[in-house]
Design brief:
By secondary structure, the chain is an all-alpha fold. The protein has a single domain (3-398), classed as Sodium/glucose cotransporter. It contains 19 helices and no strands. It has helices at residues 3-25, 31-36, 43-70, 74-98, 106-111, 114-148, 155-170, 175-203, 208-217, 236-252, 255-261, 267-302, 315-322, 326-359, 371-398, 403-414, 416-427, 437-459, 467-481. Helix 3 crosses helix 6 (114-148), helix 6 (114-148) packs across helix 7 (155-170) and helix 13 (315-322) crosses helix 14. The chain is globular and about 70 Å long.
């Protein structure tokens, strides 16, 4: 498929999103609309949009690519994710609605104190900026390789173009626009997933039933890994427990996802949204893993040298854009673009919300919707876009691994202290040493890093996604050791 045709498709896609933004933000571009959509979102739209936000381009490309190394082992992590989502819906959401939060980190101020609140908000800003940058990076490297390299456009310029397009349709309408665009993009994503399986299977002369039978009989279909607990990072217990705690941290304690839930009319609607989403989540990931198995089977059948690719993340785009016909190529680009931008646009909106509420104190100022505060919010939106650009450029210089591995490994370090803070606040009634909290939140990841390295060298233990448990536990214990009993209890 020619680079010019792919670029035309991309520009047409964003024209559609900008048009939607124009109509959804028309007459309501104030801060209340931007931050929480006036608390009037339809739960079913939020549920559909959350699918695209949670899956992202990392799921679309990296999960199929990772099948070559770990088969369907990622599904163990997904099962843990499902348990985590249930805990969010039944424990965290009722708490957030009861105290009527805009930024979920204001809970930390009410429960633990000023510095705990600022620490939690800062952890989110760092964590989500890195996570969103990695999610956007995955689509940028594909666009660069298959479109912009042919046009002699530098990588940095490609990133700027993508961020500008996202900024263009989010800077005014914010969450009110995101609810609509993410719903549309999720529909595109799901359609692309189903069609991709169909096109690849067809090229292998497989029918619907024979496709899944072929996947089942292949060496890629193994899901559960119980051997070598210490040395195998794909062991079921590590993956499952990691999935639970990563989900609680990256979703339940993440302003991006929770901001959408808090835009629903009431807790019942928010919980209906979460349980609807849970019903789709596991099945969709199983489909993505099936795409991965099919891609490796296709590569073997057609003599494609997978080992020659710089990263497994290139497998899906390489086959879709170079070995299949025009229609499957367009379907792939539709799914990839929808998955990635559904995640990045909402993250940029959530980062802006958190910065304005948690650090600029918009919720404590009168006249939140006057022109001065709206202008400040727009400046913050631009600043965070530039920050994301810098993170992507840095990541390109240092990474050679699958992005899905890099994403969750980074989450283990950055979200761990946040999980420890919320756990301490919810599970104890002790008064923390508030001024010590920022130092504890820095200390815990450093100790976790040391433990990870020493464990492999000294006892041969290889950490997987469960690293976040260690990080949060260290944070919790340090908070407990520096706290005092509440004499009022």
């Amino acid at each position: 498929m020619s680079p010019t045709l792919l670029l035309s498709f991309l520009l047409g896609y964003f024209t559609l999103l900008v048009t939607i933004s124009y109509f959804t933000s028309k007459g309501s571009s104030d801060n209340a609309s931007f931050f929480i959509a006036n608390r009037n979102s339809k739960w079913y739209l939020v549920a559909v949009g959350m699918i695209g936000t949670n899956l992202s381009g990392v799921t679309f490309i990296s999960v199929p690519g990772a099948v070559g190394n770990s088969a369907f082992g990622y599904f163990q992590f997904v099962l843990g994710n499902t348990v985590g989502f249930i805990l969010i819906a039944t424990v965290l959401l009722p708490l957030y609605y009861r105290i009527k939060l805009i930024s979920i980190y204001t809970y930390l101020e009410q429960r633990l104190g000023y510095w705990s609140y600022k620490s939690g908000a800062m952890i989110f800003l760092v964590s989500r900026t890195i996570g969103s940058a990695l999610r956007l990076y995955i689509v940028v490297i594909v666009l660069q390789r298959f479109i912009f390299d042919a046009l002699n456009v530098p990588f940095g310029v490609t990133v700027v173009i993508c961020l500008f397009l996202i900024w263009l349709y989010t800077f005014k309408g914010g969450l009110k626009t995101i609810i609509i665009t993410d719903t549309l993009q999720t529909v595109f994503l799901l359609s692309s997933l189903v069609l991709s399986i169909w096109f690849i299977a067809k090229s292998l002369d497989l029918g619907i039933l024979s496709t899944f039978e072929t996947i089942k009989e292949s060496s890629y279909s193994k899901i559960f890994f119980f051997e070598d607990f210490a040395g195998n990072k794909h062991h079921f217990i590590k993956q499952f427990l990691g999935g639970i705690f990563v989900t609680i941290a990256m979703t339940g304690l993440d302003q991006d996802i929770m901001q959408k839930n808090l835009s629903c009319r009431n807790i019942k609607d928010a919980q209906k949204n979460m349980f609807t989403f849970i019903g789709f989540f596991a099945g969709l990931n199983l489909f993505f893993l099936s795409v991965g198995a099919l891609l490796y089977l296709y590569a073997a059948a057609k003599g494609i040298n997978v080992d020659a690719m710089l990263t497994p993340d290139y497998l899906f785009p390489e086959i879709a854009l170079k070995h299949l016909s025009t229609v499957p190529s367009v379907v792939f680009m539709l799914g990839l673009t929808a998955a990635t931008f559904a995640s990045t646009d909402s993250a940029l909106t959530a980062l802006t919300t958190s910065f304005c509420i948690d650090f600029l104190g918009f919720d404590k100022k009168k006249g939140q919707n006057d022109k001065r505060l709206v202008y400040q919010r727009q400046v913050v939106h631009i600043f965070l876009s530039v920050l994301m650009l810098l993170v992507i450029l840095t990541f390109k210089l240092i990474n050679s691994d699958s992005v899905v591995i890099a994403l969750f490994k980074a989450a283990g370090y950055t979200y761990g202290p946040l999980l420890g803070l919320f756990a301490f606040g919810m599970l104890t009634r002790r008064n923390v040493n508030d001024r010590a909290v920022p130092f504890i939140c820095l200390f815990a990841p450093i100790v976790t890093f040391i433990i990870e390295g020493k464990a492999l060298v000294l006892v041969g233990y290889s950490f997987g996604f469960e690293l976040i448990i260690v990080n949060s536990l260290i944070t919790y214990l340090c908070l407990f050791a520096s706290s005092k009993r509440d004499e009022r209890v």
